[in-house]
Design goal:
The protein has about 230 residues and is of the alpha+beta class. The chain is built from eight helices and seven strands, in the order H-H-H-E-E-H-H-H-H-E-E-E-E-E-H. The strands form two sheets. Strands 6-5-4-3-7 form a five-stranded antiparallel beta sheet. The protein has a two-stranded antiparallel ribbon with strand order 1-2. Strand 3 and strand 4 form a beta hairpin. Helix 4 runs antiparallel to helix 5. The chain is globular and about 65 Å long.
Length: about 230
Amino acid sequence: MRRADRLFRLVDLLRGGHLTTAERLSEQLEVSVRTIYRDMADLISSGVPIDGEAGVGYVMRPGYDVPPLMFNRSEVSALVAGARLIEAWGGAGMARSASDALQKIAAVIPKEVAAETQSVAVQAFKSPELLQSQRELIDVLDDAIHAKMGLKLVYVDEANRLTKRQVRPLGLVFWGKVWTLIAWCDLRNNFRLFRIDRMSDVKSTNKFELEAHQTLAVFYEREADCAG
């Protein structure tokens, strides 16, 4: 959980007006008690009306609320359009999360702005070419990238040859109809792009560490140099 998300969650947990210990908060947020102490000190110093201290507990005085998120019309359109694209073309879990995110945003922005989310004219429609199994695979790959988990997979290349690969997943790219995995391929000892519709038997292996020349940033630098 990002620190900003954790601070918002802390405020939310303290809304009930009951004394809550740092130990209890640390359990709910799955962080150390020391982290809770630091976060509470930062919230108090930023003006959030919290009473209490380390070793005793914390309580938030009534009447405080997080300032509403503010978006202009163009920003609302961008958020809605992006969410609809993911709902139509993203991973299965991504699609659900995109819908949930829109609902959360609509719940905390002013009503007149929230109403504009229903009038955004940008739409995206699902395609039968993107199979449900491929959408689920997108989520698997995204999770592996986040967790830095290596993958073993079977891949059919452009010459229709079947190969077994062991890769370190770095990023996902959507090209309009096709999703591609950017990865460091241990077999080729170099960066490679893998179309997800040509993958099968994808399995996680072990956590990996990247050397300086194997990062996604280096891949993009090379692509920029080739394009130039």
